[in-house]
């Protein structure tokens, strides 16, 4: 598993350049607050109500809902391509290895169904997903931000693109920088958005190599706190494919700045978390938030989410308004 993630990262630079080229032409950048003021004034209330009703019953859905938006935007831009089901003739993004544990599609589908009832054929799935992700973060006591709207849905969703373009838990700092930069996101956006790991869980196999066999010699990752490794080993056996652990133990349901405290103590779960200490700008940010109880984290996160939400969007007459988020019209 770790090996295939590593392979995925080898393709990243090449694939990112192709994506960058494609995005330049597609990104009209024309999203605005209040896009549906006249055509669907209740959209935000409907999406919020639907999202809250799911999350209040299952709070662990919040993190995957945030991830859905992130995984949508990183592949072909924020065009709802992550939501599309595979068909007989097409392996869609959601079937790709890096997306195998994504969940929460039912929340987006329910929000879409409710919105369609109020204003049929008007609101894109890509916009609904951006709103759901925002509402999920807010529901975990995180920041709230205005989501500029007006995205349209894409008509292409390819598993291979997800495999090639999504960052992996094994990425080092240079790879992470390239991946974000290729999409127009800064180094600061990268360290800020990594803070989303304050909520959610991870499968043992995504970091087990750091505990048991880091360089293939039965060794541990020297960049992880030894005491933390000992704790994690009690939860994760070397070939454990099923166990999940909290990324921010004790407050995985609270969107807060604890992630930075953990990373600064060398207790980030993934190599891609630990990598943030390997660069002067990102490590300065980690230490600042850790030492100031996240003085600017919420406002930074809101700003970076808005920026991420603009990646490669289809606007105007491009794309379509899908009737069902899982099916291209
Ligand atoms: C939409 O409505 C809000 C609140 O009334 C207002 O602040 C905003 O300017 C409007 N936007 C557009 C594009 O009409
Ligand atoms: C997607 O839409 C574009 C433009 O609207 C069209 O040229 C293309 O053939 C469509 N692709 C698929 C797979 O439907
Ligand atoms: C550690 O990794 C090496 C190289 O991939 C492999 O040959 C070895 O069997 C692994 N050891 C354990 C204990 O899994
Ligand atoms: C974990 O998954 C791998 C690959 O699918 C499989 O070979 C292995 O037996 C699994 N290990 C356990 C403990 O289930
Ligand atoms: C940090 O950089 C050092 C030196 O280049 C490297 O050995 C180490 O693997 C890096 N750590 C991470 C977590 O990327
Ligand atoms: C998409 O796939 C899911 C899971 O297989 C299924 O439950 C859902 O009904 C499908 N959606 C549509 C609109 O076909």
Automatic annotation (TrEMBL):
EC id: 1.11.1.7
Cited function: Removal of H(2)O(2), oxidation of toxic reductants, biosynthesis and degradation of lignin, suberization, auxin catabolism, response to environmental stresses such as wounding, pathogen attack and oxidative stress. These functions might be dependent on each isozyme/isoform in each plant tissue.
Active-site residues from the entry: 71
Record GO biological process: hydrogen peroxide catabolic process; response to oxidative stress
Covalent S-S links between cysteines: 40-119, 73-78, 125-325, 204-236
Highest taxon in the source lineage: Eukaryota
Localization (cell): Secreted
Keywords associated with the record: Calcium, Disulfide bond, Glycoprotein, Heme, Hydrogen peroxide, Iron, Metal-binding, Oxidoreductase, Peroxidase, Secreted, Signal
Binding-site residues for substrate, renumbered to this chain: 167
Residues making up the signal peptide according to the UniProt record: 1-28
Enzyme class name: oxidoreductase
Residues binding Ca(2+) 1, per UniProt: 72, 75, 77, 79, 81, 93
Record-linked SUPFAM superfamilies: Heme-dependent peroxidases
Any one Gene Ontology molecular-function term assigned to this protein's record: heme binding
Family classification: Belongs to the peroxidase family. Classical plant (class III) peroxidase subfamily.
Protein name: Peroxidase
Organism: Stephania cephalantha
